[in-house]
Design brief:
Length: 109
């Protein structure tokens, strides 16, 4: 592999930086697909890792109904390809800054 490749100049330094920042990195070049696969996604076109998203939402929203978590995940992963890239990024930014608002009925309602 060339010392001047994209992998050597960009990918490997980025992976090292994320590691230094405390992130876990995974080489998924030979990813196993499926629910119990490497990342839990069915196809490589799934860009949101819902297994990890669900865990994070449950950790951040302790005691929240599973249905509310499911609705939040649906809203986060919703197809935004009909939007322009700026508008799609603005929606994602609003979720990060203000949270995802969902309406649901729990067992008590």
């Amino acid at each position: 592999m060339s010392q001047y490749s994209e992998d050597a100049l960009i990918e490997q330094p980025a992976i090292a930086l994320f590691g230094q920042l405390g992130y876990e990195t995974i080489n998924c070049f030979y990813e196993t697909l499926g629910v119990s696969g490497t990342l839990g996604r069915e196809t490589t076109s799934e860009v949101v890792l819902t297994r990890y998203l669900r865990n994070a939402l449950e950790k951040l929203n302790t005691g929240m109904d599973r249905e509310a978590i499911n609705l939040a995940i649906e809203e986060i992963v919703k197809d935004r390809s009909s939007l322009g890239p700026i508008q799609a990024n603005q929606e994602a930014y609003k979720f990060l800054k203000h949270g995802v608002k969902v309406t649901y009925k729990n067992a008590d309602d």
